[in-house]
Amino acid sequence: MSALHPIDALIAQLPKTELHLHIEGTLEPELMFALAARNGISLPYADIASLRAAYDFNNLQSFLDLYYAGAGVLQTEQDFYDLTWAYLQRAQADGIVHTEIFFDPQTHTARGIAFATVYHGISRALETAEAEWGMTSRLIMSFLRHLSEEDGFAVLEQAMPYLSGIDGFGLDSSEAGHPPSKFQRLFARCRELQLPCVAHAGEEGPAAYVREALELLQVCRIDHGVRSLEDATLVQRLAAERMPLTVCPLSNIKLKVFADLAEHPLRRMLEAGLVAMVNSDDPAYFGGYLGENLLACRRALDLGADEIVQLVRNSFEASWLAPAQKADWQRAISHIVAAWQVEQAL
Ligand SMILES: Nc1ncnc2[nH]cnc12
Ligand SMILES: [Zn+2]
Fold first, then answer.
1. Which of 134, 210, 230, 296 is the most buried (most CB within 10 A)?
2. Which residues, other chains included, contact 22 with Cβ-Cβ below 8 Å and sequence gap of 6+?
3. How far is the CA of 173 from the centre of ligand 1 (A)?
């Protein structure tokens, strides 16, 4: 067996935060089958291997079709708890100390599941992780952009009793043909509620959608944003504003945004001064959680320790942790890097 690469050892030791994770995208095939059995639902796959074999996507939409169908096994509050708890256990094993997760309530309310069922299941797991391990989290309610703005207003109304446990709003699902401008009034309402907004933009859609997300939705982070690189003026602006871009490398490869990880622009994004960091998006479908994304990028792009540390630091900077907590984690990173450097010098 070959020895662990020294930078991979550093990746394992660093405290990490994840800012772009769809909880429904953490539904592993094993849990999907277990919940289907528990709820008397039959899946159109003979077994786990044939389900996994279907995870061969051509683009975002081919993934979303499977992802929304898979979420159909989530019925009860306990199901949402079990889903979230399974992710949190993996996150803890991955060295994640803080996570900001998306949930897509419309995926569930459209099937007759109450908003409260979804919300309480997820929040109870997040509270348990904080009580048991001190893992902090934020919960981001995301609107489905393939649905109408009116539909978004309707789910926002259902969310109102739970707003104290919701930390921000997002925009996801099929990007092409559903520009941020479609949700300008909805996001204006979200901002009136004094909560931060983020949006998927520039994943499959053009750089112009990133501009719209900034200008029309006034987001404080761009999810993905990789196609921003097609517009040099936009890149300069994103860098000057220190606008975070929550990049998801393995997701981009599985959804064929880039042909190969070696062609991924992550390194170029850092070189351009962008506040980019690595996230897992829908790890059960894309073949890797956060640590695996970092390891795969390190290998494919030959990232050095400085770049890995920059990505991890960017993630804490862009998080919604309080400034004092961010400073504590940045100090912790400095200590770990210093100890790692001493070890390397021996
Ligand atoms: N990568 C992605 N892009 C857009 N919507 C999503 N919903 C879950 N994953 C997504
Ligand atoms: Zn996403």
1. 210
2. 101, 102, 103, 104, 142, 172, 281, 282
3. 5
